[in-house]
Amino acid sequence: MLIGSVFVFKNFMKPMKTKILPLLLIALTTCCNENSNFNNSVNKNKLTQIEAKIKDTHSDIKAKVALTQKVISLKQIKDFFKLSNSDYTHHKITDNANLNVDMANIPVFSGYNMLHAFSYKGYPRTIKPKRYNHFVLYVYEYPDSVKANVIFEELKKIVNTGRLNGNDEENAIKVLSNAAYFGGFICLKNNFIIWRVETCTPDYQKTDPVNEYNFLKFLYSDEELATIKFLNSDCGDMFRTYSYLTFVKAYSYALKQKLMNK
Q1: Whole-angstrom Cα distance, residue 115 to residue 122?
Q2: In what order do the strands lie in the sheet with 192-197?
Q3: How many other C-beta atoms lie within 10 A of the C-beta of residue 262?
Q4: Which of 174, 173, 198 is nearest to 184 (CA)?
Q5: Residues 70, 221: contact at Cβ < 8 Å?
């Protein structure tokens, strides 16, 4: 009887094993899926938290920049360049004035209230100043900083793509190319777009970067310098977009000399 009972028990356990094994596998799979779902959920939460921190940091930077922005007036710009009436002539050009002055009628700059163009007094001697190299500075004054920013963004597109949306496209690009040949420095400040004229003087590689560096330091706070973009061209080159850091790296050879001579 005992032998028979053992035989019956063994035979009874065989089907039980076949049922238990799949159940164990299902339980393990469910557990793994739950762990996987839990881990994915944790990872998603971490990513969300990181993204939120990045956004907060970016917002903090923007807020800090807004709080530390320098407000620069036209008079301060004139004083910085020492644009007194004894040295330079101040020309006031409205946007609808049909004047043959370089940079006054380029489509991308349209919409300004006033263009303040400063020419070298006494040069040229026999004609009215109108060519790019007759001037030392252009200051485009817009109704507000929003309008100035829109114009500056469009200008960056021209520099980065070589295209201009608007009328007289080819002529506008040609004028910009001609100006770039002489070198130039363009930046946005408040409701002004400021174009510093440069010429191909023999020592421009040493003097221009230092002048532009001083100009940047005058116009912007340290917080602004961390975020701004501006345009620059050397003698014979096209304009390109710079950040403050790329500018300092690109012209370190001249700026080091400036710091050494202090």
Answers
A1: 21
A2: 88-93, 114-120, 135-141, 192-197, 184-189, 229-233, 240-243
A3: 4
A4: 198
A5: yes
